[in-house]
Amino acid sequence: MQSEKVMGIPSELVQQRSRGKTKFIIGGLVIALAVVYLIYTGVQSTAAYFLTVDELYAQQGAMMGKQVRVSGMVDATTINYDNKTLTLNFEIMGENGQNLPITFNGPMPDQMREGAEAIVEGTFDGNLFTAKTLLLKCPSRYDDTIEEVTVNSY
Amino acid sequence: MDGFMPAIGYTAQVLALILAVYAIVFAVMGARKNRQDLILSAKNASLGVTALLTVAVVAMEYLLITRHYQTEYVSQVTNSDATLFFRMAALWGSQKGSLLFFGWLMSIFTGAILLNKWGAVKTLIPYVMAVMNLVLVFFIGLVVTVANPFQQLSFFPVDGQGLNPLLYHWGMVIHPPILYIGFVAFIVPYSFAMAALITGQRGDLLMRTTRRWTLVAWLFLSAGLLLGGRWAYDVLGWGGYWGWDPVENAAFIPWLVATPFLHSVIIQENRGMMKRWNVGLIILTFALVVEGTFLTRSGVIGSVHTFSQSAIGPLFLGFIAIMFIASLVLFVNRWELLESEGELDSMFSRESAFLLNNLLFISIAFTVWWGTHFPIISEALTGTKIVVGPPFFKKAVGPLFAAVVLLMGVTPLMPWRKITSRKLLRQLIVPSIVAVVVAIALPLLTAIHFKGAIMTLAFIAFSAAVMLMEYWRGVSARRRAHGENLFTALVHLVRRNRRRYGGYLIHIGVLLAALGIVGMEFYQVETQQNVALGESFSISSPFTGTFEMTFRGLQQAPGKPGVENTEGLLDVSRNGEFVGTIKPYRELFLRQQQPMTIPDVYRAGMTELYVIIAGWEPDGQSATFKAYINPMINWLWFGGIVFAIGTLVAAWPSAQPARRTSRTRIKEKVAETP
Question: What is the pTM of this model?
Answer without folding.
Answer: 0.87
